[in-house]
Amino acid sequence: MYWLRYLLKEPYHALGSARNREFMALLLKYGNRARYKLTDVTFGGFKLKVPDTMSFLWQHKEIFADEFYYFESEQSQPVIFDCGANIGMSVLYFKKLFPKARLLAFEAEPTIASLLRRNLEGNGVNDVEIIDKAVWINEEGIWFGSESADSSSIYSTAQKRKIDSIRLKDFLEKESRIDFLKMDIEGAEIDVLHDCRGSMARVQNLFVEFHSYIGNAQGLADVVKVFEENGFRYYVDTNQHRIRPFVNHRYRGNDVMDLQLNIFGWRE
After folding, report:
1. pTM, rounded to two decimals
2. Separation CA 107–CA 118 (nearest Å)
3. Which of 41, 175, 200, 213 makes an SS bond possible with 155, Cβ 3.0 to 4.6 Å?
């Protein structure tokens, strides 16, 4: 009966838990909405304004349905750094998981940072420190291209402007312990991790969304080396499993990236 299990694997996964059923309901409700239009959405007791319903849906899938950022801690007030907080989905998840967590949320794109602040306040989350600057290797600012809901980056092909930045290394070194460091900073992760490689001993759990941009060095080995040098066990996954990868080199639906990976690191 292997063929039947294989055939039913995806439907079973999609409906097998309350979290996945919620995602399917949201997909039915918002999946056909016009893209890149400011929209009010509701789920799980939360109300948000989102700049793109499709991006919101896949954030929900990763964060709330698949629980990419779930971790356990014996700390009553774990310290969480959310680098690339976007509109606040990950922040809401972390605060649901650990209501007393001390959380710093970094978001570079000014328009998205404004929505982040609005969404947190609208859901009664008032104890998060929001830093509306780019996570980088210095405080000299960075040239940044603003695109759609979750595609702005230093590698963007859109017209760039200089925005304020912080040096993440300085923030890490102010803490004696960081229970979770999430890094989804659209290509800046390679430089930032290199700059922080000597300051990671205080980090207990590390998530990096790795991006490889066409025409630029990939740098995956440098990222993995930071995990290994700092004693993390790690797991690497992707949301896109390709058919014929030797000839299919592009990241589906994206004209500037050829690879995106999720790297999960923890201490044993």
Report:
1. 0.93
2. 13
3. 213
Give CA–CA dist 89/93, Å, rounded. 6
Which residues have a Cβ under 8 Å from the Cβ of 172 and sit 6 or more positions away?
81, 178, 181, 196, 199, 200, 202, 203
- Residue 52 dihedral angles phi and psi, to the nearest 5°: -160, 120
Cβ–Cβ under 8 Å, residues 180 and 236: no
Q: Rounded to whole angstroms, how far apart are CA atoms 213 and 235?
A: 22
Nearest to residue 200, comparing CAs of 165, 168, 234? 168
**Pair 161, 62: CB distance under 8 Å:** no
Map tokens 């490889």 to a residue.
Answer: 212
* Residue 150 DSSP label: T
Whole-angstrom distance, CA of residue 110 vs CA of residue 101: 25
Tokens of 9: 């694997």
Q: How far apart, in whole angstroms, are the C-alpha atoms of residue 61 and residue 52?
A: 15
Closest C-alpha to 182, from 157, 213, 159, 207: 207
197-248 residue pLDDT tens: 999 999 999 999 999 999 999 999 999 999 999 999 999 999 888 899 999 8
